[in-house]
Amino acid sequence: MSPTTHQTAPTRFVEAHGVRYAYRRLGAGGEVPLLMLQHFTGNLDNWDPALVDALAAHREVILVDYPGVSSSTGAHATTVAELARQIITFTIALDLKRIDLLGFSLGGFAAQDIALVRPDLVRRLILAGTGPKGAPGMHGWRSDIAEHARAENPSGEDLLYIFFAHTETSRAKGMEFLGRLFQRTEDRDVPSSIESRDAQYDAVLEWGIPDHSALQRLTGIRSPTLIIQGDDDLMIPTKGSHLMAGLIPDARIRIYPDAAHASLFQYPTEVAEEIEEFLG
Asked: Is the dihedral of CA 101, 97, 119, 107 positive or negative?
């Protein structure tokens, strides 16, 4: 039997509090699974297969659609705190007592909250392309990024503009990523809706309201933390990662060169190796 991969893992469902969560599990090994939380409007098929498969070679990986997004039912969260509670409910439904947690972008916002309100749940924390609540430069996106991120029918060009640096070398890596992204042909996830997009943007805006005191929350994160970002993130300022690294008590930071928002998709092999070393 062929091993299960990101392209072949079946979509499963679990119900909790009236919500039917869509998720996928793959990989094996280790006692602590890695739960991965997706970016703005992202679904199960928006993860880079190269990254997911490299991580799943060493451990169990769990991907999930947020309530109201793509194949999950339920009400859309309009704040990050609400989104974090929804994911905690999902972990309870799967009887996950201890997890490693990777949050990308909006998923990284939720991951910070989860690590704070359920410190015993999160063994190790990975924050990729994300930023801290209330920090400077976090209150919404610049106009060109917002235009591409909030497109009614997002295209590959929209993803390239947001996720990759505006250089020939980074865009070339972006084209490779797009080629991997659409390889799955069966049991694909459904696109996220306009309603879920707007609810998530409300959550992004609420998270980014300037609030210097909110930064002190980071000092309460007890999980060892790995912070990953590109050196020229146009969506979430890279300086926010340095801020998080200085405030989270046990944090390390890795900034990837010639990269923007999705450094983990531009450097999937290198990022997977960095994560595996950190988790191991």
From this structure: positive
